Amino acid sequence: MKIACVGGGPASLYFSILMKRQDPSHDIAVYERNPAGSTYGWGVTYWAGLLDKLREGDPESALAVSENSVRWSDGVAHVGDRTTVHHGDEGFGIGRRRMLDLLAERAVSLGVRVEFEHEVTAGRLPDADLVVAGDGVNSALRERHADHFGSEITLGRNIYIWLGTTKVFDSFTFSFVETDHGWIWCYAYRFGDDHSTLVVECSPETWTGLGLDRASEADGLALLEKLFADLLGGHGLIGRAQADGSAQWLNFRTLTNRTWHRGNLVLLGDAAHTTHYSIGAGTTLALEDAISLAGALRDHQELESALAHYERERKSALLSVQSAARHSAQWYENLPRYIRLPPAQMFALLGQRHSPLLPYIPPQLYYRIDRAAGQLEALRRFKRWLGPRVARTVQARSHR
């Protein structure tokens, strides 16, 4: 096959690696519009299960990713002057640029052409048997046929910004700070020996009340450094200002598509779907897309059959993850409901934020039920059964 991958993210690169391993005669090119080494974001997170899947697909790139990752085994939550630690939350972090470099090097070693500063326009697709749209949530290739794909975007209520810092966190860390205008909080994790990612989030009322909507990036970073001074311990924050000097505050966009392919064009990763950053699954899901698409092309001779199988498989796998991401985002949007709980309870419900049942039960009652369910298997099964049904019933009533 002649394959063109548009967008040089992790999914496109890993897909090209898998396809070359399946058949070295495939003619594969990855086109990235940006220069080599210029990538957005700081670090990405993943869990051990992803490494197992990467080892199955390509042990060499899996080893390179593993050797260049850092790991943590605890979760820490700071709420004002209170701190709670939860042991056993093992995860991994790696710099996004480092991951892209490793995957690109591996792809090139297998014979893939990786072309930087090569923009593919929606009106002129490459001449190929298969065109993979891995060009992100703003995919130009998808938008050209948005009606066919049935693209829908839902904006989250809260405002967030991705930042970096030289403060190195040994644990995955949450920090909640109360201000005169409401709560503001961050998620922080290290992705290397000398840097961490720090994502700041707050309600729109807090954002405007603090003046972050009007502040330049420099002034905004100075204010955030003051608010999170205890957490940062003297370290600064690093932003990525826009051309006009403003900070890149965003509302999260949850993207879904009715179908993922059209003729020989198929969507991959964030071009096909997004899940709220608070569950830390974006990179993992994109790489799993690549694994699924490569597997479908291996197992089905007809392209249409392969793409249809890929779409069915990934849509099915995403159902539970998308539900978890939706409820996680809503937990933070309803933070005042939980923030005054005793520290152990608040942190326990932070860990349970993916539950479809939690929004509909008083938090302290849910905590007691969850504790009891940990001891009784029958109650645990009932809780899993009840949650989705309560959520569907409430959502159905809200749409009448």
TrEMBL record:
<dbReference type="InterPro" id="IPR036188">
    <property type="entry name" value="FAD/NAD-bd_sf"/>
</dbReference>
<keyword id="KW-0560">Oxidoreductase</keyword>
<dbReference type="GO" id="GO:0004497">
    <property type="term" value="F:monooxygenase activity"/>
</dbReference>
<dbReference type="InterPro" id="IPR002938">
    <property type="entry name" value="FAD-bd"/>
</dbReference>
<keyword id="KW-0175">Coiled coil</keyword>
<dbReference type="Pfam" id="PF01494">
    <property type="entry name" value="FAD_binding_3"/>
</dbReference>
<dbReference type="GO" id="GO:0071949">
    <property type="term" value="F:FAD binding"/>
</dbReference>
<keyword id="KW-0503">Monooxygenase</keyword>
<dbReference type="InterPro" id="IPR050631">
    <property type="entry name" value="PheA/TfdB_FAD_monoxygenase"/>
</dbReference>
<protein>
    <submittedName>
        <fullName>FAD-dependent monooxygenase</fullName>
    </submittedName>
</protein>
<feature type="coiled-coil region">
    <location>
        <begin position="293"/>
        <end position="320"/>
    </location>
</feature>
<keyword id="KW-0520">NAD</keyword>
<feature type="domain" description="FAD-binding">
    <location>
        <begin position="127"/>
        <end position="316"/>
    </location>
</feature>
